[in-house]
Amino acid sequence: MEFQSCPAPFNLAAHALHHASDLGDKSALEIMHADRTEVWSYAQIEAAVRGIGTGLLGLGLAPGSRVLLRLGNSAAFPLAYLGAIAAGFVPVPTAAALTEAEITRMAALVAPALVVADAGIALPDCVAPVLPAADLMAMQHLAPCAYEMGDPDRLAYIVFTSGTSGRALAVQHAQRALWARGMMHQGWEGLGPTDRLLHAGAMNWTFTLGSGLLDPWVNGATALVPAPGTAAGDLGALAARHGATILAGAPGIFRQMLKSILPPLPALRHGLAAGEALAPALRRQWQDVTGTDLHEALGMTECSTFISGSPKRPAPEGASGFAQTGRQIAVLDANGAPLPQGQPGVLAVHRSDPGLMLGYLGAETETASRFQGDWFVTGDLVEETPEGALRHLGRADDILNPGGFRVAPQEVEAAMATCPGLTDCAVTEVEVATGTRILACAYLGTAEEPALAAHANTHLARYKQPRLWVRLDHLPRNANLKLNRRALRAALQDAHDDQA
Predict the structure, then answer these.
(1) Domains and CATH numbers, the chain
(2) Between 144 and which of 7, 50, 288, 334 could a Cys-Cys bridge form, CB atoms 3.0 to 4.6 Å apart?
(3) What's the pLDDT at 165?
């Protein structure tokens, strides 16, 4: 089925808040603190966004100037983001946890004309002036700016890839990116105007910014945001207290919630998981405990989500889901030719997809390398099931090669997840001698090595069985509980070297 083209002229911020004039006092954003709730209505959000747009215009920034956001999980984040876009500037959201050295490297690439910052968050060493968040928020009371309307293909914002497996790249997205998310509102989220969606991730993460804020507002729903410092184990109580109908986060969030005593969640309809593979065992456990389903989505910073399960069409067990209505996808071989159903290959999205990035900033070679003819190659290894669903086999750059055998770590992790006494695990490879690598498994729980090895022997081919087992207190994850495979490999290599 064809997806309707983005209208022109278009402005991302105007589309995000197109319900504001009709919904007025309805709650758009609720920031949930332990002792209070900060509530923003649709009318307040739009007035603040357009007032901030006026304030930024008053600073004399040139059209299209880049505004680097160094903000935490507060209302200032989405207001600055949308305010910049409303006025014709290009916001650059970044993670608050980045160090001065890290954000300085990013700033050197994007060359911001302005930095908007909360107190206590590392600033880049660059020439751009710094606007304190308090001064930005004071702009909300200014007269509203006009939305800067124009070509849907023009640049709207820049966001960095997570960099969990290598160098972070600056992804340039067009204004039409938000329009394209319309394919996932029912193709994944099952989102409507009566929903109250609680997202547990940091606002700078594209999953949170999109599914946690912009998608609820496009649909006239309410976005629920935990206050900074909220523990994953407390999310169940917050969801119950605030009547959350949808929960969203990385699989690790749901795993942490299940470790606590979840209260009854009578309003909850389902959960949304993305950021890394959802283990079938975790999905089943969530279903057993809550009576609701978890719907996984497969996507990336460059194109958001395009494969997913949904309330209307749940994914078969072990699969990520189906191509969303309107998406053109293919499974390609090494030469870029489409493969028949059932044969594993690299997932690709057609270059005409309206949600696809404009390209990597300052990285033309990397941009060109992602395209094969009419296809944008995602780097995800998948195979199509008889039902037409896609089973995720891991990232091409995650594939391990111990002893000359190609092994997807996610396949080993899924097999080990059913081992009694193991609560979480992650697999990588370590070098035990020059040119010799073995599989290593980091795990949490009470299981002992003999039981782990026996379980692996039962469920995995010999070449897929880990040879090194390392019990850790926690797996290395980023602020959104997404596994950092690069840090995992370094930690297990160090563990082996210490034992050698």
Answers:
(1) 12-152+175-318 (3.40.50.12780), 399-499 (3.30.300.30)
(2) 50
(3) 43
- Residue 291 to residue 443: CA distance in whole angstroms: 28
DSSP string, 95-127: -TT--HHHHHHHHHHH--SEEEE-TTS---SSS
Can you say how many angstroms the Cα of residue 236 is from the centroid of all Cα atoms in its chain?
A: 21
Which pLDDT tens digit goes with each residue over 419-476? Answer: 999 999 999 999 888 767 899 999 999 999 999 999 999 988 788 899 999 999 999 9
Angle between helix axes 409-416 and 449-459 (nearest 10 degrees) is: 110
Task: Check pLDDT > 70 for residue 163.
Answer: no
What are the E-state strand segments in 110-166? 114-117, 130-132, 155-160
Which one, of 379, 384, 404, lies nearest residue 394 by Cα?
379
Q: CA dist 191 to 53, 218, 479, Å?
A: 29, 10, 25
What integer is the mean pLDDT of 28-34? Answer: 94
Q: How far apart are CA 53 and CA 137, in angstroms?
A: 11
Residue 199 amino acid letter: H
The closest of 436, 423, 428 to 468, measured between CA atoms, is 428
User: Position of tokens 């919904």?
Assistant: 23
DSSP characters over 479-492: TT--B-HHHHHHHH
Reported confidence tier of residue 164, pLDDT bands at 50, 70, 90? very low
pLDDT tens digit sequence for 362-379:
999 999 999 999 999 998
Contact predicate 29/215, CB 8 Å: no
d(C-alpha 306, C-alpha 181), whole Å: 9
Tens digit of each residue's pLDDT (9 = 90 or more) over 216-229: 999 999 999 999 88
Task: Name the residue type at position 76.
Answer: A
CA-derived radius of gyration, the chain: 23
pLDDT tens per residue, range 380-390:
989 999 999 99
Nearest to 469 by CA among 433, 497, 494, 496: 496
389's tokens: 């669903």
Name the one residue in this structure whose structure tokens are 């005409």: 352
For residues 414 and 280, the answer to whether their CB atoms sit within 8 Å is yes
Question: What 3-state class would DSSP assign to 43?
Answer: helix
* CA distances, 213 to each of 26, 197, 343 (Å): 15, 9, 37
Residue 478: band (very low, low, confident or very high) from pLDDT cuts 50, 70, 90: confident
Q: How far apart are CA 81 and CA 91, in angstroms?
A: 6
